[in-house]
Design goal:
347 residues, alpha+beta, Endonuclease III, domain 1, Nucleoside Triphosphate Pyrophosphohydrolase, 2 domains, five-stranded mixed sheet, two-stranded antiparallel ribbon, 14 helices, 42% helix, 13% strand, oxidized purine DNA binding
Length: 347
């Protein structure tokens, strides 16, 4: 059997029943693909279902406030996806009368849509034979054909795209694309794949040469930067606190956070107290400072590691410009702050 026939046969017997596989509506496919970028299905599916319920059409999504979208996205990370999702929905509604572009080239023009997402939508919704190449596809192809070219290099991206395009079933590109992604996710897994039951065990170059653990090849990323975040959780006598909106570019753009003191090194109570006293919200205001978490919370992102401490600042006075503590959960916040809010149990 050829690679294509073997792959499709495996898929027909092993594919998972997932909600976005029951439709060719480009809105639903686009939404699922954006959510599943950098996110495993087990985590992403509840978000997909929540978005479909809250925003059943692109018109509903376009008319929402960005804060609503970010709040519903909370916990998924990579928040630029959510901001691009909302911006693109508004563009399609306002400029394209709510009609999705129906070709790969036109889809690529949408904000937040790259080669992979454009290929997925074009093939699944419009039957255009454009091959998807994601982490699963890189892994399957590099192992099966024994390819050493680093997948995160420009040469690698080009070579794997060309190979994937040669292999795609031009008569049924949707099934092929979903099959090879599913095979990588379920069968040809990153760690400890079950090669003994793999339908390609007699033709896989990596298996024949005992190189499964070596492929795919990836250039090591630069070492993540360390940042130290000290969040000041103000609690006033009239049960108010302060949340500030993050402006400017960054991973948490337009999300809310407690007042932040960023330092180059981790600070203990004695080191941080003078900085807190100089904070513009607390100058000449009596307060009590208490460290909430004894152990530093390390929040690991792809390019930086955040060493996070929360400090409770108790004010024996009202807070004129604060928000009621009862409303804290209404704001879209980064997951590390959301976890704190849940644990601290604001009343």
């Amino acid at each position: 059997m050829t690679f294509l026939k073997t792959l499709i046969s495996w898929y027909s017997n092993n594919k998972r029943e997932l909600p976005w596989r029951q439709t060719t509506n480009p809105y639903y496919i686009w939404l699922s693909e954006i959510i599943l970028q950098q996110t495993q299905i087990v985590q992403g599916q509840p978000y997909y279902e929540a978005f479909i319920k809250e925003f059943p059409s692109i018109f509903h999504l376009a008319s929402a406030q960005e804060s609503q979208v970010l709040k519903l996205w909370q916990g998924l990370g990579y928040y630029s996806r959510a901001r691009n999702l909302h911006a693109t929905a508004k563009y399609i509604v306002d400029e394209l009368n709510g009609v999705f572009p129906n070709t790969y080239k036109e889809l690529l023009k949408l904000k937040g849509v790259g080669d992979y997402t454009a290929s997925a939508i074009a093939s699944i919704c419009f039957n255009e034979p454009m091959a998807v190449v994601d982490g699963n596809v890189y892994r399957v192809l590099s192992r099966y054909f024994g390819i050493n070219t680093p997948i995160n290099s420009s040469n690698g991206a080009k070579a794997f795209k060309q190979l994937a395009q040669q292999l795609i079933d031009k008569n049924n590109p949707a099934e092929y694309n979903q099959a090879i992604m599913e095979f990588g996710a379920v069968q040809c897994k990153p760690q400890n794949p079950n090669c003994s039951v793999c339908p390609f065990q007699n033709s896989c170059v990596a298996l024949q040469n005992n190189r499964i653990s070596e492929l795919p090849v990836k250039i090591k990323a630069a070492k993540a930067k360390k940042k130290c975040f000290n969040f000041l959780v103000l609690v006033s006598e009239d049960n108010k606190t302060v949340l500030e909106k993050r402006n400017g570019k960054g991973i948490w753009q337009n999300l809310y956070q407690f007042p932040l003191i960023e330092t180059q090194q981790e600070k203990n109570y004695e080191d941080l107290l003078p900085l807190v006293k100089e904070h513009h919200l607390l100058k000449e205001i009596p307060f009590e400072l208490t460290q909430y978490n004894e152990d530093t919370i390390i929040h690991r992102l792809s390019h930086q590691h955040l060493y996070t401490k929360f400090w409770i600042v108790t004010l024996n006075a009202p807070l004129a410009n604060g928000i009621p503590i009862s409303e804290v959960r209404n704001y879209a916040v980064p997951i590390v702050i959301g976890n704190f809010i849940d644990a601290f149990n604001f009343q």
